[in-house]
Amino acid sequence: MKKPGLTGKVLTGLVLGAVVGLLINLFASGSFEVINTYLFVPLGQIFLGLIKMLVVPLVLFSIILGTAGLGDPAKLGRIGIKTVTYFLVTTTIAITIGLSLAAVIQPGLAGDFDLSSAEFETTEAPSVGDTLLNMIPTNPIASLVEGNMLQIIVFAVFVGLALTALGEKTKGLVAFIEQGNDVMMYLVGIVMKFAPYGTFGLIATAVGSQGFSAMKAMGSYMLVIVAALLIHAVFTYGGTIKFLAGKSPVWFFKKFAPAMSVGFSTSSSTATLPISMEVAQDELNVPKSVSSFVQPLGATINMDGTAIMQGVATMFIAQAYGIELSTMDLMTVVLTAVLASIGTAGVPGVGLIMLAMVLSSVGLPAAGIGLVIGIDRLLDMTRTAVNISGDAACAVYIAETEKIRELRLKNMNA
């Protein structure tokens, strides 16, 4: 991320895409399908395809090296516990913010919604226990082919531990994996040159297909979610950087802006992973051993943005249906959402599956999701930008606390 002007170019592509998509939808809606098919979609999908091409090998190489670089299994366990605890705590904070803001602003009372047309087909999500059991790959090759991130992470951690235990015997294999990781990071740099055009195409498609009328009808709901996301990013992640890592929040968000822009346009934490890891390592000075473990894990299980959506959507649907939620119901929503963030890790369409679980836990109709699903694509973009920021904030926090711990141990031994 040392290329000058990259952040500006990506942001320019993002803004231009939004403006062009909205203008075409407003003034030339009949032409949108043609322009979208032959210009916006190819630009966006080529960029997404290039990034996704790198995700699996990069995660495999980086986590193996990260685990081997940590060396001490006790250190790996300590970092793992701190990371998972951080993600669970911030997820709890996130859904609490979403519920509170929606309870005050009451977006579900802002308009007349057609409840009879609201439909949503629920999909059963695996239990937390099943998810934990399914983390262990019975066939690592199949996990790599299918892109099952949790299984890839577990397999890579075991390989990294084995490399550490075998030491000199596996020096050649470690060198090979390091070279493979270097190749992947070099390719990330090349792909990022296409980022401004890719973000332009992705944003133009998202905004143009939704249109101004859809955004206007759900304006209050959208504003509450965006406000909650901003509050969470500024106070929760900013507070992490300021008080836990001892760094400047302004420095953090400024340096991490390129990854946030790509995350916003792709709507996928996993797809953005190569860029977010490169930014964290090069711009935020997070050691590879920490970044390579924390960020891939965060891309799989950290769902703060999704938790905010669930909190706001739950209150919105309850208000639209005229159902009042008790304090116990709200506590149930928080608990269910936090557990669901673990139980649905790695499941496609995880956000809506989690929302269906949360709604059913307090007796709200899952069909209410049909009210919000229309503009979920646009909000998914903002959620992803927040999610990857949380992964990076956690990586910075872990890195700084490990530095302090190592310094104290040196002083004690001196």
UniProtKB/TrEMBL annotation:
Major location category of this protein: membrane
Molecular-function GO terms, alphabetical: symporter activity
Keyword NAD carried by entry: no
Keywords, sorted A to Z: Cell membrane, Membrane, Symport, Transmembrane, Transmembrane helix, Transport
Entry GO CC: plasma membrane
GO biological process: dicarboxylic acid transport
InterPro entries linked to this entry: Na-dicarboxylate_symporter, Na:dicarbo_symporter_sf
Transmembrane segments: 12-32, 44-71, 83-105, 149-166, 186-208, 220-244, 330-347, 353-375
Pfam families: SDF
Lineage top rank: taxon: Bacteria
Subcellular compartments: Cell membrane
Membrane topology qualifier: Multi-pass membrane protein
UniProt cross-references to SUPFAM superfamilies, sorted A to Z: Proton glutamate symport protein
Protein name: Sodium:dicarboxylate symporter
Species the sequence originates in: Planococcus donghaensis MPA1U2
